[in-house]
Amino acid sequence: MHWTKKDLLGLEYLSKEEIELILETAASFKEVSRRSIKKVPALRGQTVVNLFYEPSTRTRVSFEVAAKRLSADVINISAQESSVRKGETLIDTGRNIQALKADIIVIRHSASGAANILARNVEISVINAGDGWHEHPTQALLDIFTLKEKFGHIQGLKVSIVGDIAHSRVARSNIWGLNKLGASVTVCAPKMLIPPGIEEMAVKVTYDIEEALKDADAVNVLRMQFERDEQKAFPSQIDYFKHFGITQERLEKAKKDIIVMHPGPINRGVEISSEVADSLNSVILEQVTNGIAVRMAVLYLVSQTKERKDEDTD
Amino acid sequence: MKDRVLILDKEAISRALMRLAHEVLEKNKGTQDLCLVGIRNRGASLAQRLNKCIEKIEARSVPVGILDITLYRDDLTLISAKPVVHKTEIDFDINDKIVVLVDDVLYTGRTIRAALDALIDLGRPRVIQLAVLIDRGHRELPIRPDFVGKNIPTAKDERVDVHLEEVDGVDEVLIVGKT
């Protein structure tokens, strides 16, 4: 199995084997971050541009650390300070970055499909770091990587995703990936935050948090995105915590070794209690560490396809 | 049908390894501070076997690690089938140690160049030595082995295939001619 795709746009577009190759490669890269010299020369001389149209600290920093541990040069562009404000289109910005002879663009954008559009219009690699409500593939890959580390396999796992499913690219990418690897996924949220037609993605839907936790091997807790919730789907943070918050009492009714994941940033006392976030069931900080290994793997794999193309034209 | 000439069989390989073990121990005056690091894939198996030989001679084994050099190669662009990145597994401190790098075939020396870079990123050994089962010549870099199982003069268009039971199910070294 070899990687052949120029871009990583979403887990919807990957085969089971491709996802497994990324996970396997990430397992090898995890060792690099444990060394005293946390760097390998694999991407030496290559330039990675982080093109962020939406504010993001953790994903950008994670990509930046990953690229630097591979010896790539990293340029960060955020839309607030760039020529985007002067009216340049996404495609023109991408072509300009390509003309700078950069090798990989990591893009975060508020519009679903932005990464796909960019990828079609540039020859260099594009990695989707979250586009609107569409996909956030590296987040789902690191979630799945963490699950695989804990359980040794994905096949047959029961994973519940709790929270704002409707506005969540993390949920969508996780559903694609987990389904392809043979896990069964349940989504749980207030009715207004379950998108219509979600059942077509082969997931179970419940509005009852205890039902969602009952047989689950892992629960992935999403942040309530109150800032995106224009329709006011839920009256208040306190009400949300009361009905859907992951608390110690609720976990006590679940499997004893249930794993609690969260893509961050966590809001203590809103979607998860402090006690649970800091408990032994929580792998939230391990996810952050694993995120670097997964992003190193993705950067490495897409960079290899570029070299192969150069070789074909020589 | 390609020409295949058997150079070493199972017995010859184990005799060569036993001699290599003796030479390593002689040069380093025993097992003090000694460790073996095999280069994936077959170098890793050879390092394990070399350790068994050392154990037979000295009644004590030495630490053995595995080095994956994929990320350090300078020829990734030239290989059409991209190698999968595997783990480096060296769970002991190599600082101030005598590290014997182990590989199956020494050819251009580029693998060893990459292995030296990879190893030095992990620490500062007191000395690094090189043990190979086969030296087939045609070096492109100023690298020479300290311990050689067998020197085999080859033409550049020939191939040396080392097959080991752990990886290939059979112990043999072949020279394969170009069609």
Concise overview:
The complex is a heterodimer of chains A (314) and B (179). Chain A is α/β, with parallel strands linked by helices and 314 residues long.
Question: How are the SSEs placed, and which strands pair?
Answer:
The complex is a heterodimer of chains A (314) and B (179).
Chain A: H1 16-30, E1 47-52, H2 58-69, E2 73-78, H3 90-99, E3 104-109, H4 114-121, E4 125-131, H5 137-151, E5 158-162, H6 169-180, E6 184-188, E7 204-206, H7 209-214, E8 218-221, H8 237-244, H9 248-252, E9 259-261, H10 274-277, H11 284-313
Parallel strand pairs in A: 1-2, 1-3, 3-4, 5-6, 5-8, 6-7, 8-9
Chain B: E1 4-8, H1 10-28, E2 34-39, H2 42-58, E3 64-67, E4 98-106, H3 110-120, E5 127-135, E6 147-151, E7 159-163, H4 165-168, E8 172-176
Parallel strand pairs in B: 2-3, 2-4, 4-5, 5-6
Antiparallel strand pairs in B: 1-8, 7-8
Helix pairs in contact in B: 1-2
Structure characterization notes:
The complex is a heterodimer of chains A (314) and B (179). Chain A has eleven helices and nine strands. Chain A has 314 residues and is an alpha/beta fold. Chain A folds into two domains: 11-136 and 289-313, Aspartate/ornithine carbamoyltransferase (Rossmann fold), CATH 3.40.50; 137-287, Aspartate/ornithine carbamoyltransferase (Rossmann fold, 3-Layer(aba) Sandwich). Helix content of chain B is 28%, strand content 27%. Chain B has helices at residues 10-28, 42-58, 110-120, 165-168; strands spanning 4-8, 34-39, 64-67, 98-106, 127-135, 147-151, 159-163, 172-176. Chain B has a five-stranded parallel sheet. A three-stranded antiparallel sheet of chain B has the order 1-8-7. In chain B, helix 1 crosses helix 2 (42-58). Chain B is globular. Classes of the chains: A alpha/beta (314), B alpha/beta (179).
